[in-house]
Amino acid sequence: MSDLIDYKQTLSNLSTQRVPYLVMNLIDPLVDAGDISQAIDATIADLDAVNIATFNSDLLYDYRAQRPIVSYLDGKLNELAYPQMRLNLVTDIAGKNFLYLCGQEPDFRWQTLTQDILDIVKKYGVEQVITYASMPATVPHTRPADMLIRTTKPAQDAKYVQGRAEHFSALADFFEYFAGKSDISVTNLRVRVPFYLARGLHPFVQGALAAVKMTATLGGPKLPLGDLEQLEDQQKEEIASIQVEGAEFEELLQKLELEYDATSGEAGFVKTDEALPEIPSSEEIGKAAEEFLATQSAHLRRAAGAGRDRGPSKSKSGSSSEQGVDQTGKSWWAWRRWGRNNSQGNTQSEGSPDDRG
């Protein structure tokens, strides 16, 4: 173990627990197109979590590049928030645990950190690492959000984008390269964000929702969808108002739609719906229903009677409608601030000890 990581001594018994999934979501706002990673982080923040380890911020961050934030109150500074990496044990909505490596992407010691993460994978018996990324693209928001899925262990029949490209590496990419050499399974979900939504006040909620759904589709943690679904509907309404006001935007959108539809069959860009089981046709459903009614009419009548006592309706995510956001909803600024505070910083109030180690 390096001098960068500090495991909580009171949780030493967790070292014997096997956790199959590690979600790695380190945020750099400058390259987080559409605030995808920040939106996912805010979603995970809704879940129960226990901090397992922290990392030494003084050795990892350039405080002039990622400046700590101080808060002023009544004549003096009362809080200090500085960037920090954390390793948490989180419980998803299905009751299963996963490891969550979160915080601000560090500036220094990437090779040492990569070895530390490899040690975490070995320590907890991790079978699959999931990472997220996003990139601006000439795609319209009116089509399903898609993504490039990259893995260190592709299936023989896997589809992928043909060709060669180079780009600046994130720490997740850096780790993935060395994890592949160590025969560790890493899957990266890289969401394509409409370029006109890549930098703005609003996260590209549709893309974050698609990444969360794909995580579950691939067998990973099941994350809450309620807030993202509510915000997706709100964002669609706001963008629709822009279309009404601007004829130039409408013309641009039509061109993007035509281009997207003409190339939607290209290998490599995957939509969440493409990974779902095939849905039977209405004729098949009708035939199955007729057969069922003919043979099970008595059971159907009893079930209909019992159905009168059922609870609240379900949302499109399958969760109870009573478990969504509050009546006022989250403002977009509250969403961004919530994600930043939970993913990028460690806050200390006046007089609290420095526990960075």
From TrEMBL:
Polar residues: which segments have biased composition? 340-351
| Pfam families named in the record | PAC2
Supply the alphabetized keyword list. Coiled coil
Record-linked Gene3D superfamilies? PAC-like subunit
What are the leading ranks of the lineage?
A: Bacteria, Bacillati, Actinomycetota, Actinomycetes, Actinomycetales
Q: Which segments carry the region annotation Disordered? A: 296-357
Query: What is the protein name stated in its UniProt record?
Result: PAC2 family protein
Q: Which SUPFAM superfamilies match?
A: Cgl1923-like
Coiled coil (residue ranges): 225-259
Question: Residues of the signal sequence?
Answer: none
Q: Which domain of life is it from?
A: Bacteria
